[in-house]
Structure formats: C-alpha cells, structure tokens
Amino acid sequence: MIKKISGYRLMWMMVMFDLPVLTKEEVKEANNFRKLLLGLGFEMAQFSVYTRFVGPKEKSGKYIRKIKENLPPEGKVDIVFFTDKQYENIISLLGGNGKSRRKTEKYLQF
Length: 110
Prior knowledge:
The chain is of the alpha+beta class. The protein has helices spanning 24-39, 61-69, 84-88; strands at residues 10-18, 43-46, 49-56, 76-83, 93-94, 99-100. The protein has a single domain (10-107), classed as Alpha-Beta Plaits (2-Layer Sandwich), CATH 3.30.70. Helices cover 27% and strands 30% of the residues. The mean pLDDT is 88. InterPro entries: CRISPR_associated_Cas2, Virulence_VapD/CRISPR_Cas2.
C-alpha cells in the first residue's frame, strides 16, 4: 500500500542573497556562492534567488550547513521555507506576454 505524503509536509527551500560585487574578489566570491547553490541542486529563480525541493524539513539541515560553511565574508543571505502546496500557487510570468511557467511536476515524480 502506497502512503500519500501531504503537500503540507513537503518543503521547498529558497535562498536569497545580496552580495557585494564591486571588486574582482567580490565578484569571484559571489560566483562561487552561486555555483555552490547550483552544485547542491538549487535552481535559479532569479539571479539572486534559488530554490530547491527538500522533502520533509528535517532533510534541509545538510543544505543549511553547507551554505553556512561557504558564506562569503560580506553581504546578506536569507533562507526561507515553504510547503509544496504553497509552491503550487506560485505564478511565474515571463516577459511581456504573461505566459506562466510551472516546474513542480518533475519534483513530485518518485
């Protein structure tokens, strides 16, 4: 018997950051941080906003640890959690045509 997991228990993790990029070194650190997020399986929603499906929130600890270990020396990083049900309601508009985009389906195929 397959037990269905509630979309209210499955979580997404969003990392938002504002890092300085005034010097070559700061640009390098910001790019390394972006590459770290991509390497951890995050997808870019906007240039400084990355999301990742983490399943139960308890599984997010390893991602938080990696992010903390690799924080650039300057700037701000915020981490936000929201449920899969909340993610379903995101409306992404592309350009001026008002077309929306959905990416949820590929994460929910077990």
